[in-house]
Amino acid sequence: MAWYLVTYDVKTPYQSQVKKNLMASGFTDKTLLVTKEVVQLPSTTLLVDAANAKEAAAKFKAVAAAGVLPRSTGPVVERYVVVALTRDSHAEG
Fold it and tell me: Which residues contact 33 (CB under 8 A, 6 or more apart)?
């Protein structure tokens, strides 16, 4: 398994509920840098442990909008991107 960074856009009134759903399902909003510093990720960016990017996307889609009502306004998640987090990743904050 490896860590995958998922960044997403959600319709405004649902942002907190979507993040709450994801965090309760094993996604995290913190990462440890090589310097041993813990960094908080931006509000619509999370990490998930998965076998590959396709599995990370499937986990995201299965959980993100679960229980978010009403769905009559169309999709809650507007778009998302999944990227592998590697040892060569770089962050500054």
Answer: 39, 91
Q: Taking the CA atoms of the chain, what radius of gyration do you get in angstroms?
A: 14
- Specify burial of residue 71 (Cβ count, 10 A radius: 0-12, 13-18, 19+): exposed
C-alpha 28/C-alpha 49 separation (Å) is: 9
The pair of structure tokens assigned to 53 is: 């990017």
The span from the CA of 77 to the CA of 86, in Å, is 26
Q: What is the rounded CA–CA span in Å between residue 10 and residue 18? A: 8
> And the tokens for 86?
């590697």
pTM of the model: 0.83
pLDDT tens-place values along the chain, 93 residues long? 899 999 999 988 888 889 999 999 999 999 887 788 888 999 999 999 999 999 999 999 999 878 776 555 677 889 999 999 876 665 555
